[in-house]
Design brief:
The chain is built from six helices and nine strands. It is α+β, with helices and mostly antiparallel strands. It has a single domain (12-168), classed as Glutaredoxin (3-Layer(aba) Sandwich). The strands form two sheets. The chain has a seven-stranded mixed beta sheet.
Length: 172
Amino acid sequence: MIQVGDSLPAVTIAEYINEAREGCTLGPNPFSTADEAKGKRIALFAVPGAFTPTCSAKHAPGYVELADELRAAGVDEIWCVSVNDAFVMNAWGEDMKVGGAIRMLGDGSADFAKATGLTLDLTSRGLGLRSNRYSMLIDDGRIVALNNEAPGAFDVSDAATLLKQAQEHKKA
C-alpha cells in the first residue's frame, strides 16, 4: 500500500475534456498520473463510485466548497479519482457542479487503485473492485499526507482535513 513519502504511481487514467484546449481534444483524454503531477501540489480524493450516496452527499461537495481555500493553501489542482470511466466522471462532475474546481478522473480498469494498493472489493454487492475512500496531498509527485478510510467510514478523507494538512505543508 502506498505511504507518505512514496512517489505517485505512474498509471494512465482519463479525463473527459468538455471544451477545446490547446493540445487536448474533446472527449476522454488519457494521461500519466506521474507526468501530470510533476511540479504541482495536488489535493487528490478517491471515492468508491460516482453517484454513490456518501460520495455525492458529503465527499465531493466538501471539495467543491473548499476549492478556493485549498488553492490559497498552495494546492494547484484538485483531483477526484474513481473506478468509473471518464464519461461517467464527467457526468458526475456536471451533476455535482464542480465547474473547473475539480478534475474528475476516471480509473476505469482500477489500475490506479491497484497501483496504490488502496482497493475495496465490492464484488459481493455487484460492484467489483473499487477504490477505497481516501485523500492525499501530493507535492511534485510525492505523497505528503494520506488519509485512508476504514471500509464504510467517512472520518478522515474529507476536504477540511486535507485543507488543514495543505496549510501545514504550505510552501513558503
